[in-house]
Design a protein that fits this description.
Blueprint: E1 10-14, E2 18-20, H1 44-52, H2 59-63, E3 68-72, E4 78-83, H3 88-98, E5 105-111, H4 117-123, E6 127-129, H5 137-151, E7 155-158, H6 167-172, E8 177-181, H7 193-200, E9 204-211, E10 221-228, H8 235-258, E11 262-265, E12 268-271
Parallel strand pairs: 4-5, 4-7, 5-6, 7-8
Antiparallel strand pairs: 1-2, 1-3, 8-9, 9-10, 11-12
Helix pairs in contact: 3-8, 7-8
């Protein structure tokens, strides 16, 4: 075994299998580990587990298609938030950043409408309007990719952005785009899910935060929540109830992603 000490606090993530985030640890090949510059110690249980059960078989990395990512936790991640006209999820994210619950920097807000420009300017956030139509969708998505690249954004958040991303951009940004869908997936996909739920007389409605994939509303689920409704409520009541759920669910999903607590495992996620 050999000891390493990286210059800052890092987290090691192995997609689909395991995630380790101790403060200080002796490493063993071929794993990656973390070390606090100040020399703080890991919890006994985690340290003992890692020390007693080193990974000895290098073939397992290829057998299980494991990927290891080193993440500098001292670096504040940058996010791009996309929104259309409903801004409740956007406002909630900004508030959670202000109070310190979310550790992120909003690099830009992108919208297909002008509605949130005044808010963005008040907060000092760059605001980009990219109206989308069938004729210019490809060009506008190229503009979006340029914004992501120029800002160095680590994550794109669809905070009730009501345009469907193309297969091309969904693949290029796979694992880096989180959407909030206003229903408890896999039920009521597509447009107006609360109205669909109202027509079916459901007793629970919810919201789902998931990674974006080429398959509409089929991406790996990160976070969900439901709330009870009744026959006495109107479709508009469903929508109002759903707004609160959407905001909470999206914020929790973003927090877990930014803290490297979500691992993609095929069509599913493993969340710590």
């Amino acid at each position: 075994m050999r000891n390493i000490c990286l210059p800052r606090i890092f987290s090691a993530q192995i997609e689909g299998i395991i995630r380790v985030t101790p403060r200080s640890i002796e490493t063993f090949p071929p794993s990656t580990a973390v070390c606090n510059r100040k020399g703080s110690q890991p919890s006994p249980s985690l340290s003992q587990t890692c020390m007693q059960k080193p990974i000895r078989e290098p073939n397992m990395w290829s057998e299980f298609r494991m990927k290891t990512t080193l993440i500098d936790q001292a670096k504040k991640p940058k996010i791009v938030i996309m929104v259309s006209k409903f801004d409740h999820a956007l406002l909630h994210l900004i508030y959670q950043i202000k109070v310190g619950w979310l550790d992120a920097e909003v690099a830009a807000i992108v919208s297909n409408h002008e509605d949130s420009r005044r808010f963005a300017e008040h907060e000092g956030i760059a605001y980009h309007v990219l109206p989308v139509s069938k004729d210019n969708k490809k060009e506008q998505e190229e503009a979006l990719l340029k914004i992501v690249k120029d800002t160095g954004a680590d994550l794109v958040i669809l905070a009730r952005y009501m345009q469907v991303l193309s297969d091309t951009i969904s693949k290029r940004l796979f694992g880096k785009v989180i959407n909030i869908h206003h229903s408890f997936l896999p039920s009521f996909k597509g447009a107006k899910p609360y109205h669909q739920a109202f027509e079916r007389g459901v007793k629970l409605i919810g919201a789902t935060a998931h990674y974006v994939t080429p398959d509409l509303d089929e991406g790996p689920i990160i976070e969900q929540e439901t709330e009870r409704v009744s026959h006495a409520m109107s479709a508009e009541d469903f929508v109002a109830t759903g707004r609160d759920i959407e905001s909470r669910v999206l914020a929790r999903a973003v927090k877990k992603h930014l803290e490297s607590r979500v691992m993609l495992n095929g069509h599913k996620t493993v969340v710590f």
